[in-house]
Amino acid sequence: MAGPLTAYDWKTALKDAGLAAAIAFLLFFHLIGLRTVEQGAKLTIVPDWQGLILAVGLVFVARLLLGFMAHKWRARPKAPAARRHPRLYDGILLGLVALALLLPATPLSSRYVLDVLTLIFTYMVLAYGLNLVVGLTGLLDLGFVAFYAIGAYSFSLVALQTGMSFWQTLPFSIGVAAVMAFALGLVVLRLRGDYLAIVTLGFAEILRIVLLNWVTLTGGPNGITGIPRPTFFGITPDSPATRILYLYYLSILFAAAVAALTWRLRSLPLGRAFEAVREDELAASSMGINLTQTRLLAYMLAACCGALAGAFFAARQGFISPESFTFTESALVLAIVVLGGIGHPLGIMLAALFLVGLPEVFRELQSYRMIGFGAGMVLIMIGRPRGLFASRPPAVMLGRKENS
Amino acid sequence: MEYFLQQLINGLTLGSVYALIAIGYTMVYGIIGMINFAHGELYMIGAFVGLITLTALGALGLAAAPLAIVLAFLCAMIVTAAYGYAMERLAYRPLRRSSRIAPLISAIGVSILLQNYVRLAQGPRAKPLPPLVQGQHVLLERADGFTVTLSNLQIAIFVVAALLMIALTLLIHRTALGRAQRACAQDMKMAALLGIPADRVIAITFVLGASLAAVAGVMVALYYGVVDFHIGFIAGMKAFTAAVLGGIGSLPGAMLGGIAIGLIEAFWSGYVSAEYKDAAAFLILILVLSLRPQGLLGRPVADKV
Questions:
Q1: Which of A381, A384, A388 is the best mutation test for B, with the most CBs of B within 10 A?
Q2: Whether residue A132 sits in one domain with residue A242
Q3: Per-domain residue ranges for chain B?
Q4: Residues A93 and A64 both lie in one domain
Q5: How far apart are CA A339 and CA A334, in angstroms?
Q6: Tally of domains in chain A
Q7: Are residues A225 and A291 both part of a single domain?
Q8: Considering only CB atoms, which chain A residues are within 8 Å of B237?
Q9: E strand spans, B143-233
């Protein structure tokens, strides 16, 4: 460990940065420097030396800066860990909810703003649901989009076949998702950690392939159109403005309900059981918690939230196709949960706002968006593996250990 | 019978490619116990670098020579190895001591990052590659004109894959590096105490896995004649299935599993349904993991308490 008195070693720093730049040159030479362009059926090469130099230079500067900052940080005395203020978080949360409720009455509101916010609230429903499995119970699910799809498709198919309204069909589609989660969970929840993650991903992919190919039922790649809109006590809001407003408040209602439910849960025995399973399976099961049952319940509850979001999504769009249910969606929801952390409902809320809202606003940067998204996931894991916004001590803790 | 034979040949070709990718998964899992979710992207990058090299050499008028293909393989291996190294160094090494889930999420991030980086740098459309290795042998001909063929490229794929696997097996079992790798896989802390540079051994494992994936990528680019930025995901998942089927952590298991997955895919698309061929691989994955998680050749892992 370098003390505060050691001078910064510029020579080594430059050498390191040079090495990083050399590796970067190797990495980028083909893929950035030689751009392939299709001309008819043939490929031609268009060199992009400017891009190459820019990318390599960026790596050089970044390595230099990083080394320098690390040096500075090492020299600095360690600041005491910042205290968390749950009260403050509660206040911010309430403020944001009030703002969301009053927004349509303010001049800030527009059709576009309400649409984006409705989308964000839909993702919040998904994220609070997935948080039950990933955050609370500690099971990594990479195929959460499967239940989103099941909700959307079962809702659309039933609504179109029977002519039932939104509120009549909703319980049914949630039930379908719960049954599917039960069946799948029985098979796969014996697995743990990364194996479980891959299996859930496999399930989601199988489902997507089936949705793509079972043309008679799902319409294949063309999807399903003409899905009935949500009704309000039997009345279908017909003017676009009222409908958007209605959907907006409905999405707030769903997000708030799921958030309240999942956060209330952790002070109930069931939620405590979830957390116990996450922290230590062996200890949990020797305290009489049935592991399979607990995991299955978490999984099914999450699936219900996914289906709720899916049904709402289908009813809002009026159109669904397998394209909306790819792995990217699973990864996005997972990123919201990871970024939001398992500390406070506010975390997931801000993470959804950040990860869904920002890319919507900066549409022009679309192509850079996913790169930043991937890099962000890596950086969060390295920097704040417990989430960016809040971390949370266990719900119940006995007195501090003497020797720790 | 003829149809069966043809599917067998196709399946073995596919299988040797999957086996090469699967080795990367199994080696990394064996040594640090993580699923390198982004390994499929290394295969995609290998395919791209091979394609770019071949196209660039073609533009210089050098494409026809067999030397160009050798050069493409070499370039792809070196560049992809650099990606494997950078990936380990930047995204996984800082997480060595954290929970099991953190490196997996980081790997998903790397996978998304690499896919979209290639998409941005090279464009979203599929890139064509003219057939460079031509010529095929008719093995059998049925009365109705259906022929069973074995192309030179298929032979080359078998031979290259087999040679690489033999070389790798020798490397693992006969050299000091291989011994260090096996030691790290058994007990990283003890190996480090005995003076084995564990970090370097892990980095070399990534480099080896990446170069094998690159070879697989270039071979597939030559075989199918198209490359695009999302081929890594499905191929990676299938290769991972192969590694799990063979018993993750076991080198012969990965080879066996790769061949098995290739055959299953070829026969499934030949006899059952071509649309659901990707679903077949995932179904096998779920079945193997829930019925026999240790795979065909792996040993059951006892839980450490």
A1: A381
A2: yes
A3: 22-231
A4: no
A5: 8
A6: 2
A7: yes
A8: 201-202, 205
A9: 147-151, 226-227
